[in-house]
UniProtKB/TrEMBL annotation, chains A, B:
<dbReference type="GO" id="GO:0008131">
    <property type="term" value="F:primary methylamine oxidase activity"/>
</dbReference>
<feature type="active site" description="Proton acceptor">
    <location>
        <position position="390"/>
    </location>
</feature>
<keyword id="KW-0186">Copper</keyword>
<feature type="compositionally biased region" description="Basic and acidic residues">
    <location>
        <begin position="758"/>
        <end position="771"/>
    </location>
</feature>
<comment type="similarity">
    <text>Belongs to the copper/topaquinone oxidase family.</text>
</comment>
<dbReference type="Pfam" id="PF09248">
    <property type="entry name" value="DUF1965"/>
</dbReference>
<feature type="domain" description="Copper amine oxidase catalytic">
    <location>
        <begin position="317"/>
        <end position="729"/>
    </location>
</feature>
<dbReference type="InterPro" id="IPR016182">
    <property type="entry name" value="Cu_amine_oxidase_N-reg"/>
</dbReference>
<dbReference type="InterPro" id="IPR015798">
    <property type="entry name" value="Cu_amine_oxidase_C"/>
</dbReference>
<feature type="modified residue" description="2',4',5'-topaquinone">
    <location>
        <position position="471"/>
    </location>
</feature>
<keyword id="KW-0801">TPQ</keyword>
<dbReference type="InterPro" id="IPR036460">
    <property type="entry name" value="Cu_amine_oxidase_C_sf"/>
</dbReference>
<dbReference type="Pfam" id="PF01179">
    <property type="entry name" value="Cu_amine_oxid"/>
</dbReference>
<dbReference type="InterPro" id="IPR000269">
    <property type="entry name" value="Cu_amine_oxidase"/>
</dbReference>
<dbReference type="GO" id="GO:0005507">
    <property type="term" value="F:copper ion binding"/>
</dbReference>
<feature type="region of interest" description="Disordered">
    <location>
        <begin position="745"/>
        <end position="777"/>
    </location>
</feature>
<feature type="region of interest" description="Disordered">
    <location>
        <begin position="290"/>
        <end position="321"/>
    </location>
</feature>
Amino acid sequence: MDSRRKPWVILSSLVLLVTFLLYYSSWTTQRTPLKYAEQAISKPAFKAPKENIWAELSEREAADVNAFILKEYAHLNLTEQPKNANENSIFFVETLRPNKTDAVPYLHGHGEIPQRYAKAAISMEIDGLPHMVYYMVGPLPISSESKISPLQYVFNNGKNSVQNPVSDFFALMDYCIELGVSISDITQNLLGASVNQKNPEDPNGLMAFPRPTPIETGEGGLILWIQFQRPGFGSGGRTLLPQGLYAKVDASSENRAEWKPKKFYYNGVLYNSEDEIRAAMSDPDFVRVPTNIDGPWTDTEDFDSQPDGREMPPPVSIQPYGPRYGLDRTQRFISWFGFEFYITTAQATGVSLFDIRFKGERVMYEVGMQEALSHYAGNQPMNGGLEFLDTFFGMGKKSFELVPGYDCPAHADYLDIEYHELNKTHKIPNSICIFEFTADHLLSRHSAQYSVTASRNTFLTVRYVSTVGNYDYDFSYIFYMDGTMEVKVRASGYIFAAFYSADEKHEKGEYGHRIQDALESSMHDHVINFRADLDVAGEKNEMVRMAVEPVTKTFSWDQPENPSRNTMHLVDYPVTEETGLDWPKNSREFYLVRSTEQKNAWGQPKGYRITSGTGMGNPPHLTIVNSTVLGESGRWAEHDIWALRHKDTEPRSADPLNYFATHEPLVDFKKQANHESFEDEDFNGDMVFYFNLGAHHVPHSGDVPNTLMHTSASSVMFVPHNFCDRDPSRESVQGVRLQLKGHRSGGFAGEEFDEPNGDLRSRMDRHSHEEKKKKKTKAHYFGQTYEEGMKVPLEALEPNQAGYISEQNFVSDLGFNGSAIGAWHRDEA
Amino acid sequence: MDSRRKPWVILSSLVLLVTFLLYYSSWTTQRTPLKYAEQAISKPAFKAPKENIWAELSEREAADVNAFILKEYAHLNLTEQPKNANENSIFFVETLRPNKTDAVPYLHGHGEIPQRYAKAAISMEIDGLPHMVYYMVGPLPISSESKISPLQYVFNNGKNSVQNPVSDFFALMDYCIELGVSISDITQNLLGASVNQKNPEDPNGLMAFPRPTPIETGEGGLILWIQFQRPGFGSGGRTLLPQGLYAKVDASSENRAEWKPKKFYYNGVLYNSEDEIRAAMSDPDFVRVPTNIDGPWTDTEDFDSQPDGREMPPPVSIQPYGPRYGLDRTQRFISWFGFEFYITTAQATGVSLFDIRFKGERVMYEVGMQEALSHYAGNQPMNGGLEFLDTFFGMGKKSFELVPGYDCPAHADYLDIEYHELNKTHKIPNSICIFEFTADHLLSRHSAQYSVTASRNTFLTVRYVSTVGNYDYDFSYIFYMDGTMEVKVRASGYIFAAFYSADEKHEKGEYGHRIQDALESSMHDHVINFRADLDVAGEKNEMVRMAVEPVTKTFSWDQPENPSRNTMHLVDYPVTEETGLDWPKNSREFYLVRSTEQKNAWGQPKGYRITSGTGMGNPPHLTIVNSTVLGESGRWAEHDIWALRHKDTEPRSADPLNYFATHEPLVDFKKQANHESFEDEDFNGDMVFYFNLGAHHVPHSGDVPNTLMHTSASSVMFVPHNFCDRDPSRESVQGVRLQLKGHRSGGFAGEEFDEPNGDLRSRMDRHSHEEKKKKKTKAHYFGQTYEEGMKVPLEALEPNQAGYISEQNFVSDLGFNGSAIGAWHRDEA
């Protein structure tokens, strides 16, 4: 009956091995930056000082862990390719990152390297219901010491498992198709199309999808809202093609045959049965409203338009001498002008950085994305109840090969992302890029009487892009020469739009703008949570809100003219307990994280400032108060920044499986941010911070076809504040000092104090054409500059995309790649 | 006695003419962008559709206006090179920009070109006191119709003149030197140096300067606070070298011989006379505190440091085919991918843009800087009373030639700034740059099942840099392909630091951080005001605060599972009267300016959003409430955005001469933003907006030697919001669509719906190495791309700075170039 997925051959380990080898051979075409200048500098091999203790499991480690679990937990009858959640399986294995208290003695002292552990998510039946259960496995490598134990200490609801509300994902998807077929008369009549069971991807057909999880559970049951979209295969933009018909299904029964649509919603009216909507449709006054049909308007490209200028290629960045950073590909360690850090990845959360140091001093133990929520609002059952917690879908897993020369400059370096799912290792080639870039503006400049100094703003970026269904997120970690660090997210892709009916009786514009004949833009909030475990010059830190405040002051020197003076001053407000903070009104507070032990040469505590950065204004937090759908799973979204005590038992603000149990999540952030004191004696001074990026997104016509990254950007920056004794970028930066006269700078630009004996005539002489030829401005460079022209190869201007490896943006070659739900496979029905 | 300035020769007009010619010849080395690709495209000459009616006066026009005034106002005995404010003179002439109501019929209809007028500032005596008086002169060219009349209609205090509080600037400066010399015993004892009257710029001496205006007037008198700095000639950083000694002088008398220091302030103690401080110094318990000595720590360059990577040049932007914009140099008109606008300049306010259109529709009549205030706070007489209104110093006049390849990419175009002061035309060559730049990130992207589309974010920038004493401001107007426009200011240069004494008894850190032995960072606010005369799809506009608000809703389709739902919705709050707005808490309001007449294809009013942009979070407004020194001159700094009725009588929010009369300014913004209704029938719908950029700047050790531009940036953006029917960048952008399979996009990336007949074995085959070689990814480009490698000349990588023209960053070659005060010259004493 279901023709979509033919039988999955049960593979022998031999076949698996061959598969791996084939993959490996195709993935070895690793992109590395070109060096094409004659003097291209060949650097010695660069080595990290320590091992990357956060590294994702190697393929060998993952295979060993899987084998160990299969052996030790043989009683679970673990299947390598499960058909549904009732078949037990190892969903994924990944590194269980070491506790910081074990890592720090290794990193910053002579401590032993922390023992290595894996985390395993096992899909298994408990009390007859499907669950996802976390275990820790180790120490690694597997030995007689190794064991499997429930992983519980990193969660705070007393459990290590979550019930899976959907026992058979494919059955659910099939039900949607069956439902569509069963009401073909209705869809054909109202929408001009119907679900094609033989070819569910029929471009002229309809697709039927349930509203994503969490699916509402009334009294333990499962309630589905199913909507119809056109597939939009011409552009991939099916979220722009809602059809305005929704069916509500009680899917509580184990027996799918008992599932029936109980309600229909169309054009603002709720119908209590199929018969009721059929009856209504036969009424001559029944209003049919236009629907959304795919067309060139969803195309993400305009190949034909030829405005002036498009016949020429745009400016492009080149880097003829190769990269200036050191990259240890084995340890995934980078060193760049004083910054040093390790890169690691996880299938759910993408790229994290660890042990970030600047000029040899500790700045951050960890920074990484925790969860990305998008929460919609609307007047109909789909967008009105729509919410995503995207790590559930695997934001690392959902990254793809980056487009060289576009996602990253042609001169970027690339790393792969690997993850281990269903007993296989998957490699996403060239999915992290690293590059230096010179901004279009300076880092610093000063024009004086006889000199001008200009220093270039060249920065380092580590980037990956995660495409979760309709949306592409660009995650960038950016480093600047003065010690500033930035975390920036840009979003693009198709919005998840809502159906628009001119006829429907609700307040127009209450949830978005009309952006097409039958389309409304559907307001939503993006809140993307990051952990920043700052260790500013060590672990012992404090946080102070340094406020800029108006004040009236009386000064002795001001008398008698000003009995008092309206001015301003600084007031420090220590953050004394775990709390959430918002970006201050009028930007009038500096959020400083300062060492309580280390001071700079001037006696100032070494500090970093946490500030909203170069996104669009201040990143927002969630608008909705006590969201009905989010439950306890988005408490981190309620403020902009959180200051917490560091605890090994609280390594994250969220867990991907929170999406399965939003009201009783594995990680309940509210229990972490629970007002514990920073002033108690038992507190060791190690603070950890969470912050949110995102946007209140009210898309408009310019979001069609795709949201644009330049205006969807949000950023938080960590800026040194008295961290060094003086601006450290001076030591690294490349620039020029123009000496206009003599060898000093003189006074302010434009001043002419120094002409004690000059009259106008003699000065004019100096400006004469003859003189001009002789007196060239002297340019003194700091840092290396370009010394000669060069031949730039095409690859440096326009990388050959034929090397792009992914054939169809696959991640997994084994089955539907979507989520924990989507891990299952089936034999032919 | 004063050896600094020898006699200024009175020049005949012949000499002046020669001077002009000499200048002109040296300025003709105009930089234009290189084209070096073989296929470099030669575009036909590009012409503006209309005349630039805002253009600065030509040299000829200015000379004619000056001559006309000299003739008509012969009774004023106008001197070409005045010695002090008691000698009448024409300080400057510039274009009096046409009234918008005259300009619009010309620009957007068949109206006559508006009559051209000049504005003249005449320094003259009124009732025995020096004044600066504004006149309008025209129509131009000068004819029998032309006349001179008081320019009053653009001011709102009923006057066209301001009293000049300082009648003899040089006398004041000389007094400071005399004072220094007269207390050499004190300065030598406390500061280890003294003022060198014979060589006031002695690098080992002291410099004495009065606290800048407004100088406090007690009962009409003139009170000066004079401080001592080391000259810091090695780096130009004298504002980092305060010495901690301050003298208070009553300078009310016309007779300078009567001026005497009445108080001294040192190390927190106020002394009532010279004798008192001398007596205190002889006390063995008197505390002498360390002072600030120049050294390498103020150097803006580190030539010697060689960290890894500095031996290689950084990435650089090239543009081998030349610019893709059209530039009419005569009319200063630019056209770039749908954007069109005119550029003009003014000596006080720098670059403004006029008649900005996008895709043929009106967006903005005018955008330009109005005033830049910096307001300090501190516990001593200098920084405690320090405040600047920088247009007074001439922020256009204070721009300098830009450093090619550094201030702007090597491929930038340049324009000059001209102004007319004291009967001369001054040209600042290559002081405005125009360039395209490709960002390090995309404008849009989407990864689908079978395709990836990536569009480059190439933007256009118009930039100039103004150096007002210690600080460099980078002003950038930035245009994006989707119709977004950005106004961005970055600051660098030396901070104006305060003296720090460890001994002094005040709360440390109340006004800044210690950043050197004897230096405190001195908190200050920068508030930089811009006018944005939005005409979104025409003049008839409205402003709405579209708020994103939490709400609890009951939906029919939600029953019975959710009796009500916590969600959010949009609420429109019309702005009904002239008012100041602040950036909203949690970014939760969209400030939309919408046409009340024009709608897009979907019935949405065409709109633009005003939003805080890519600076550091939200730009702030002034902290200080009712500043004692600012008086009524900074009312525009009290909120972030202002919405006003457009009036020809209110073309600006400030006037440079407000600095002379802060409590009774020529332009009192509060009288403009006076709550007039936008709903009255008499209102024609033409709104004008003001917005502020800037920063609460609490400098720290990393601000030494110079503040850094990447973190000092602030920005406001104007983003289309339902302005077009669809994203217009699609028509302009350059990018690539990678077709991984077939010719469609398929579904979401990572989905594998389309393998109805595929089993694993056959799919593995397709991924085999052999297959991979055959099946290359197809790259489909939109917009032109690079087709071949090329030889890039050195000039494109590293422009030859020997072509930098300014010999010593002069602006005026005639005397001290600083301010209206600084316009005077003197014969030998």
